[in-house]
Amino acid sequence: MLRCKTGWAQPEGPFHDVVLTSRVRLARNLDSAPFPGRAPAAALKNVRDQVFAAARQTYLKDAAYFRLEELDAVDLRFLAERHLISPALSGAPGLGGAVIDRRECLNLMINEEDHLRLAALAPGLDLRLAAREADGLDEDLARSLDFSFRPDWGYLTACPTNLGTGMRASCLVHLPGLGLAGVINRLLESLPRAGLIARGLHGEGTKVMGDFFQISNATGLGRTENELVAAVEKAVEELARREKEARQKLASGPGRMRLEDAVFRAVGALTGARLISFEEACHHLSALRLGLSLGWEVPGDFGLVNALLVLAQPAHLMMLAQKQLSPEDQAVLRAALLRQRLAGK
Amino acid sequence: MICTACQKAEAVVFIKQIANSQVSQAALCAACAAQAHVPLAPVHPLHALLQLLAKPPAPRARPAPARCPGCSTTWADFRSTGRLGCARCYGHFAAHLRPLIPRVHSGAYAHRGKSPKPPPATR
């Protein structure tokens, strides 16, 4: 898995210089058991067995199946860093499970807040593709799983805020131009009016790092799946268009020298630092990505920068080193990895 | 994370205060944050739900229903966590949930999306 490029690091798809990935997740629960927060261990195991068995009848038959209690803390964090399980499930795996396809573009997360969260991922701005994939898998699973559903409130979830379609359509976007232009907060604050919300790199409650944001629908009741996808897509396309304009304006205006200075200082740090935290690496990789999008002569390409944003995370470094690393040792290895990869080694 | 003030409910507001070079931190649930006059950003739907649930019931509000027969969850459990215990909770607490749902779904009260196909046995 470490050697594979994650689906979300592929520099493909529409607007890929601004939108890294599009993801659609569906929350589902089985009618036969209480929600995970209330279910006894036997019921949770039974849910996981049922979901595994159902998944083996689908496109996921050759996927990787994980019982999370069998994984150690580094493995769990590794899966969370690749957005394959949530940070919450990684911290408290209980009797959770994960099913991950080879391309890491379809995955199931079992027994987190809901029995099942299925997710489909597409590179760039392509929510319709992700929605089609998620819908297809949902239909296949529904052939053997009895999902909790009421005609008036839709798919029933542990938290009523996820009720209805159970859908969250989200895009991971890189908006450094709007940040530098000083308009990012105003734009993100306008999202709730369209029923949308902005989060940090790893979703709910996570920190915004390096101008990377997740834009998604806030709730999933009262609109059809297609309407939700269209609303997020429209907003992200508009943000991407404004981001591109902001980048060009910054690069051609009086602030160009300041921008060049910021980008090439970042290159200096990434190719020269001996100790670097993930937060600092994110910040500099964001600037490098901006330089690449402007066609400047900076090291690397979109694919490499996207991959480094994944590989420079703590559990990925520990996987690479095949041992536990202190934060300082992580900083040393991260700096070495960045220097080597950006030098083309 | 549990509220540092009441030690009971889930914290939804995280405060870091620096005064006279002294750093103090607190994590508060919606009810304790309201008591301390800390404004909650009404952005996250779960936060909005917990804020609604933290409000004291109106004097003429209908009495809290009994435990859910499916999973034993009480209305008080739901008020403190924002999570129901099982699918039957939706039917059991329907009268209490019905006015709440549109308030955390931007006014929407009915599902308009797809339905699951009936399982093979019932087709």
- How many E-type strands of chain A? 10
Count of helical stretches of chain B: 5
Alpha carbon gyration radius of chain A: 20 Å
Rounded to an integer, what's the Rg of chain B over CA atoms? Answer: 18 Å
Helical content of chain B (DSSP H or I, runs of 4+): 25-40%
Neighbour order of strands in the largest sheet of chain A: 2-3-4-5-1-8-10-9
SSE topology:
The complex is a heterodimer of chains A (345) and B (123).
Chain A: E1 19-28, H1 41-55, E2 64-67, H2 73-81, H3 87-91, E3 97-100, E4 106-110, E5 116-123, H4 127-142, E6 149-150, E7 154-155, E8 167-174, H5 176-180, H6 184-189, E9 196-199, E10 212-217, H7 225-252, H8 256-272, H9 278-293, H10 302-311, H11 314-321, H12 327-342
Antiparallel strand pairs in A: 1-5, 1-8, 2-3, 3-4, 4-5, 6-7, 8-10, 9-10
Helix pairs in contact in A: 2-11, 8-9, 9-10, 11-12
Chain B: E1 13-19, E2 22-28, H1 30-35, H2 45-54, H3 75-81, H4 87-92, H5 94-104
Antiparallel strand pairs in B: 1-2
